[in-house]
Amino acid sequence: MVGKRLRRRLGPVSISCEEASITLHFAFDQISSPGNKVEYEIEATAPGSSAHNIEPAVRRLFSHTGFSWDSVAVPHAPAPEITQSSAQG
Asked: If you ran DSSP here, which 8-state letter would residue 73 be given?
């Protein structure tokens, strides 16, 4: 059985960061795998030279909501086969 990915997009979102404005685009994924396993991912991207400010900008945005996280370095393995269904949100 193949997993299923549901992706929703948000953006552009402008955030002030380090005396500049950064434009972020978000993707929110819900990944369903065999055995009723469900995982969630949030992906943030920034165009051009502002890409190095993504993490501070996202932390600043989420700090206003009371949301915090710890950065975790995860080695990237080849992605499993996933069928994608798109939803507008």
From this structure: -
- CA separation for the pair 5, 49 (Å, rounded): 30
Buried b (16+ CB within 10 A) or exposed e, 21-52: ebebebeeeebeeeeeeeeeeeebebeeebee
The predicted-structure confidence for 29-72, as pLDDT tens digits, reads as follows 999 988 889 998 888 888 776 667 777 777 778 887 777 666 65
Number of H helices, E strands in the chain: 1, 4
On whether the CB atoms of residues 31 and 3 are closer than 8 A, the answer is yes
Q: Are 46 and 70 in contact (CB under 8 A)?
A: no
The answer to whether 58 touches 25, Cβ cutoff 8 Å, is: no
Question: In which element (H, E) is residue 3 found?
Answer: strand 3-17
- For the question of whether the overall pTM of this predicted structure is more than 0.90, the answer is no
